[in-house]
Design brief:
This protein is α+β, with helices and mostly antiparallel strands. It is built from eight helices and 17 strands. It folds into two domains: about 100 residues, Phosphorylase Kinase, domain 1; about 190 residues, D-amino Acid Aminotransferase, Chain A, domain 1, CATH 3.30.470.20. Helix 3 runs parallel beside helix 8 and helix 5 crosses helix 6.
Length: about 325
């Protein structure tokens, strides 16, 4: 892959001015653009969006002032690899300059179908940890799904479970919801299909990851309705360290927190005495030390390389 200086170190201080494209939305990590020029519309089509992954990183519902170099490229390239493995309909139309991606964002951008996204974060859990563990300790359930007694942090579940959450705005926290709540939001048929697709993706990816020495503990995916094909389609990113918990199978041991290939270094530093930050306050988090930035980048790179078998450069 050829690289420009912009694609190697993408600053998110402001959105890029991309010729032929108009910026329409920014999330915690990604910026969306729509075709603006007729030449671009003729080349890539009108019913599409350019999805650009920045190097921004979020934690505890805050987008941090510090960025992780190459993070957007890693997320994009890992997502593209997974989209090719899963056997489900997805939203990616193009990912190279030759196919219409602007050179300024090559490697960190995808041209995708425009979808009507469902207001549900679709989560599959194969292991008990995180918010699921907290609910289990309080009630023996996760999203009202009863689980066996005696499970601990990191316990493998007999069968993966669908544990959705409601989408929250930037700066707010997603809330776990029940399957019945999903039915109320999108209807019986769509809720069933979302659950089926989410668990299919998890089951397929868990097997692939395990063959590479990685445990996929849980993952979040998003779906939308494709008005052109009339189908429910996988969107956003998929199976990255931002949306999934990846653990090293060689060091996995239930009953304790597992080292993970994600932004745990960031979370740990922010809640340490060294940061001096109170996450319960209204004060924005402080900038990250260079060591935390580099260690976090290294974990993202390691996840990419272990899963794909490719060298990230």
């Amino acid at each position: 892959m050829s690289e420009t200086s912009a694609s190697r170190g993408f600053s998110s201080a402001s959105t890029l001015d991309l010729p032929g494209w108009t910026h329409v939305y920014s999330g915690k990590v990604r910026d969306l653009y729509e075709p603006a020029d007729e030449s671009v519309k003729e080349s890539v089509g009108q019913d599409c969006v350019l999805v650009v992954a920045s190097d921004r990183i979020s934690a505890y519902d805050h987008v941090l002032s510090s960025e992780i170099p190459d993070k957007g490229r890693i997320l994009t390239q890992l997502s593209l690899w997974w989209f090719g493995q899963l056997g489900v309909e997805h939203h990616v139309l193009a990912s190279t300059v030759e196919e219409g991606v602007p050179a300024e964002v090559e490697g960190r951008a995808m041209i995708c179908k425009k979808l009507d996204m469902f207001p549900v974060e679709c989560i599959a859990r194969g292991y008990l940890t995180g918010s699921g563990l907290l609910e289990y300790r309080a009630s023996g359930t996760v999203c009202n799904i009863s689980l066996p007694e005696g499970l601990v942090d990191g316990s493998r579940l007999e069968h993966a479970i669908f544990t959705p959450s409601a989408k929250a705005a930037v700066g707010e926290h997603d809330e776990n919801i029940t399957y019945d709540a999903v039915v109320a939001l999108v209807g019986d048929d769509i809720a069933a299909r979302l659950s089926e697709l989410t668990l299919k993706i998890y089951t397929t990816a868990e097997k692939i990851a395990r063959e590479r020495g990685i445990i996929l503990a849980d993952t979040k995916v998003e779906f939308g309705y494709d008005a052109v094909s009339g189908s429910i389609t996988l969107g956003d990113e998929v199976l990255t360290p931002d949306s999934s918990r990846f653990w090293d199978a060689a060091t996995y041991q239930p009953g304790q927190a597992q080292p993970s290939y994600d932004k745990q270094y960031v979370r740990d530093w922010l809640t340490s005495a060294e940061s001096g930050w109170d996450k319960a306050s209204d004060t924005p988090p402080p900038a990250l030390p260079a060591e935390v930035v580099e260690r976090t980048r290294s974990r993202y790179v390691e996840a990419y390389e272990k899963i794909t078998g490719k060298t990230f450069a």
